[in-house]
Amino acid sequence: MIRINSVIIKAALLLLPLAAPAEPGFQMDFSGQLPGQAPEGWASVWQKPVDDVIYVTNAGDPANPEKRQLLIDRAHGEDHTYYRYQRKFRLADMGVAQAVRVSFRFKVECASLYDAPFELEFGPANRRIMTLSFCLRSWGPNVFLYPVTLRSWTENWEAKRNLGEFRRNAWHRIELLLPYGENSPMRSGFGRLYDASGRPGPVFEVPALLPMSAESAVSIVPANKRKGAAIYLADFVFEPASPRRLK
Question: How many Cβ atoms sit within 10 Å of the Cβ of residue 17?
Answer without folding.
Answer: 5
